[in-house]
Input
Amino acid sequence: MTPDLAAVHFDGRTVAIRLDHGRIMAIDPAPGPATAVILPLPAEPHVHLDKTYTAHRCRATKPGLFGAIEAMAADKANWSEDDLHRRIARGLSGAYTNGVAAMRSHIDWTEPGVPLAWAVLGEAAQDWRHRISVQRAALAPIDLLGDADHGPSIAATVAKDGGVLGAFIYRNEGLATKLDRVFALAVRHGLALDFHVDEGLEPEAQGFDAIVALTAKHSLGGRVLCGHACSLSIRPDTEVARVVDAAARAGVALTVMPSTNLYLQDMAPCRTPRLRGLAPMHELRNAGVEVLLGTDNVRDPFYPYGVYDPVDTLRLGAVSAHLDPAVWHDAITTTPARVMGFDLPKIAVGQPANFMLIEGADWADAISNPRAGRHIFRAGKTQTQGAVAA
Ligand SMILES: [Zn+2]
Output
């Protein structure tokens, strides 16, 4: 079907959009109802291209996050250059088909030396640079990155390669000292920070609080992104309100990943989960925190299902966290683009015609049907999908 730009749902109204030479030439009011919603091409803030598509060969034997970490560690013997190239290319291809314009992928960095996957994703990012802008984020245990001997060389490599510095934090000993060193490295090298933090349901997991405090101390607002913060979902309301307010003042952003949180949190054999581990997204956004939605793991022990499809992630957020897609679609588009520092085309006259149409009269209609037709425009050229690609 040829995409119809005569009646498009845009910012709550129906408009007609005219394109010429790959650009948006006019956006004019049009009579409703609309036949499709329009959104900028998604920016994906949080995936793991080094781990992806391994689920068939390494299923976790213990429940929850740490069971998945164990299974993944055992699979690393298979991570040859060829294996990584193949799986990373498959992930990027799926994301491109689903309209993704920019992406940040974490890469496990568990030894002092540079991991092979870091180099392989660097090459893939070059190969794909005209289709998807790819950022690499180091994902090191805080005990390694916060180590006075090893942290500086990791940070120097990440800076040289134009990456983002990141660490995994969960109830670590001596956290304040280690985190302070990581922040000092970020300041020294001008690096952005991205943490996996408090991905569990113990109220003592308060790494997010420490990151917020250090962001304020080092004046790094707008440069620090956290992922998960699941423990905020079970901490007392008064504490949460205080942390949320501090995060807004410090300028710390948060990525929530509904698929992995719903899958890994409160997981026990033969028992239905009660606690869902989703950070308080509404409260954070209402306080002024930038809240992003991330796809996180795809087809690996952390989440054996999924596709590289931010619209699917938004749909899951709509169900699991009551996110109105008409309000929250910026959590998969402009907000992650801004937080990651990508200057992507907007839907405005004079801008490149890079956007997505999803068939439907409005957002509720469009998001209701996972098989709704999609039309992805890049420089005015369309690629049409009937269904979500793997
Ligand atoms: Zn992650």
Q: What stands out?
A: The mean pLDDT is 96. DSSP finds 14 helices and 15 strands in the chain. The two ends are 21 Å apart (CA to CA). Residues 46, 48, 106, 196, 227, 296 surround zinc ion (CB under 6 Å).
